[in-house]
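User: tokens in, sequence out, please.
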């Protein structure tokens, strides 16, 4: 019987680390791809193989009858001022894993291959009223939407039979990601509504991120897939729930123009509204561990 071989680009990142730990618990053969071998080896010593992104070579690829599952999570962080250099790194870092996956598949004739690639809900347009599913129109209005389209177009043009574009929402975890920055803001006492606070924020707990990736593989789902909770929150309500868990106020109002001065074009991602529905996960009977934000944040901040 052919076995699954998981190949994770960006294995030392937030999602990659948690995914690798879960795969290890499930006795799945996992190859990590990283730019920093020594650091990642200390962090994830249980990986079956650890390869340098600049020199990806392994005898495992010679057994091309196995099922190779390439998961591309490498990414320059979006947060920060989007200079031309920053914007180029953001895009190139996301395309690198796709290009290398395609190259390996072709080089070793890995016909039983699947590629899952990190995309994002930024691909959808700004919408304060309507819910958006995988069937909704995408947008070209922002850098993130343009970048996400380029990533998905690259993967879709690869001629690999099984392609999955994982459209992540705001990933919530005690170990980093968006909450790392939000914690800092709220602990300084300056958290609160951003703009009018009526924009929808679509989020997901890290446990549901990992479980959804495994669900996608096990159920052979394909195409674009929204990886968000089925219950997004308006930003002003998100702020109140977060502040309550941090025992901090949620009173500081940040006007649009101030945010744009500080963050430049990145401010758009905080001010735009994305009311996302994870239709494909729901239709395939995925069971969310954390459906509601209050339960997700309570788990992160109050449960040991």
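Assistant: Sequence out:
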């Amino acid at each position: 019987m052919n076995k699954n071989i998981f190949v994770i680009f960006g294995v030392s990142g937030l999602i990659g680390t948690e995914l690798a730990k879960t795969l290890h618990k499930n006795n799945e053969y996992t190859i990590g791809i990283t730019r920093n071998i020594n650091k990642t080896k200390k962090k994830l010593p249980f990986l079956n193989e650890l390869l340098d992104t600049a020199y990806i070579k392994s005898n495992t690829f010679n057994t091309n009858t196995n099922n190779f599952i390439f998961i591309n999570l490498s990414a320059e962080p979006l947060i920060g001022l989007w200079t031309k250099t920053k914007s180029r790194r953001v895009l190139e870092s996301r395309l690198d894993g796709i290009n290398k996956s395609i190259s390996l598949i072709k080089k070793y004739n890995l016909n039983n291959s699947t590629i899952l690639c990190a995309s994002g809900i930024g691909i959808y347009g700004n919408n304060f009223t309507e819910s958006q599913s995988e069937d909704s129109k995408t947008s070209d209005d922002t850098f993130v939407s343009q970048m996400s389209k380029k990533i998905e177009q690259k993967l879709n043009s690869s001629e690999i039979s099984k392609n999955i574009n994982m459209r992540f929402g705001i990933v919530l975890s005690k170990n980093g990601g968006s909450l790392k920055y939000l914690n800092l803001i709220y602990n300084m006492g300056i958290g609160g509504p951003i703009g009018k606070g009526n924009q929808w924020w679509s989020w997901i707990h890290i446990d549901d991120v990992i479980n959804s990736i495994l669900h996608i593989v096990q159920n052979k789902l394909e195409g674009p897939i929204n990886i968000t909770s089925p219950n997004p929150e308006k930003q002003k309500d998100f702020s109140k729930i977060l502040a309550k868990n941090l025992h901090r106020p949620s009173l500081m109002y940040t006007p649009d123009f101030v945010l744009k001065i500080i963050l430049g074009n990145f401010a758009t991602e905080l001010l735009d509204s994305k009311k996302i529905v994870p239709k494909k996960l729901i239709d395939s009977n995925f069971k969310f561990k954390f459906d509601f934000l209050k339960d997700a944040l309570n788990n992160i901040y109050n449960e040991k």
